[in-house]
Amino acid sequence: MVDVGANGRISDGGVIKNTTFWNLLANNQLNIPEPITLPAFSKELPFVFVGDEAFQLTPNVMKPYRRTDFTDNKKIFNYRLSRARRIVENSFGILSSRLKMLNKAILLARNKVRKIVLACCYLHNYLSKRKDMYLPRADVDYEDVNNGNIVPGSWGAEERQLISLQALRGNLANEAKIIRDDLSIL
């Protein structure tokens, strides 16, 4: 699912709340599988999406713990969540490294820009199925199984200036906190 057209000044957390995806998620219309009991754990847990600090914590959207209330389990949870988010970041990095036009402002009418960006996403997904040609292993971040270190892919070799995300403030659902706590002890 791709959403295009939000103002670049809005935080990721603010952008997602104005998408079809968020509306479907909030209304339980995404057809997410039912919660399951994970191996060696007695409690059912829902399937979740991973987000960063800018996202709202919900039962189906996990975000890292604040660094102020760290325990060993919470540190490990944040590490694992960060590793999962790396997959998404790889996708965006590869997309923009292959389609250089996405690295600068596209000076066209908003509706044309939307169509171009969506076409780039479709093309990227289509070409990604041809891993041997479009995504050689050296281009993608991967984990060295011998030492557990992340080996950066060549897509990230170009220096990019990232925009700081604004933290979302608001009420965090108790249910979401409990799910995150349960995931942190696995």
UniProtKB/TrEMBL annotation:
Residues 2-125 form the DDE Tnp4 domain. Its cofactor is a divalent metal cation. It holds the Pfam family DDE_Tnp_4. The keyword Manganese does not apply. It is found in: Nucleus. Signal peptide: none annotated. Coiled coil: none annotated. GO terms for cellular component: nucleus. GO terms for molecular function: hydrolase activity; metal ion binding; nuclease activity. The keyword Nucleus applies. Keywords: Hydrolase, Metal-binding, Nuclease, Nucleus. Its main location: nucleus. It comes from the Eukaryota. Belongs to the HARBI1 family. This is DDE Tnp4 domain-containing protein. It comes from Parnassius mnemosyne.
